[in-house]
Structure formats: C-alpha cells, structure tokens
C-alpha cells in the first residue's frame, strides 16, 4: 500500500440564521486584516 496524504475524513458545518450574502462576505474576508463577524 502506498501512503496517502488525504484521508477519507470530511468536514461539514452548518450556517443557520445568516443570509447567503452574509456568508459570502464572511468567506471573502477570511484573509483580510479586518474581518466582519456574522450576527448571532
């Protein structure tokens, strides 16, 4: 068997209570120094 870098694992997250626009803005700003937080 050859060693694999990736495993069979995966990640799932839920984003309830926010709009698609808010989520897009959050993702787009991940590398920005000032990141807006999503309302809770």
From TrEMBL:
Q: Which residues form the Transposase IS200-like domain?
A: 2-30
Entry's InterPro entries? Transposase_17 (IPR002686), Transposase_17_sf (IPR036515)
Q: Name one GO molecular function term.
A: DNA binding
Q: Which GO terms describe its biological process?
A: DNA transposition
Q: Which Gene3D superfamilies match?
A: Transposase IS200-like
Please list which residues make up the signal peptide. Answer: none
Q: Which parts form a coiled-coil structure per UniProt?
A: none
State the source organism's domain of life.
Bacteria
> Can you name this protein?
Transposase
Its ancestry begins with:
Bacteria, Bacillati, Cyanobacteriota, Cyanophyceae, Oscillatoriophycideae
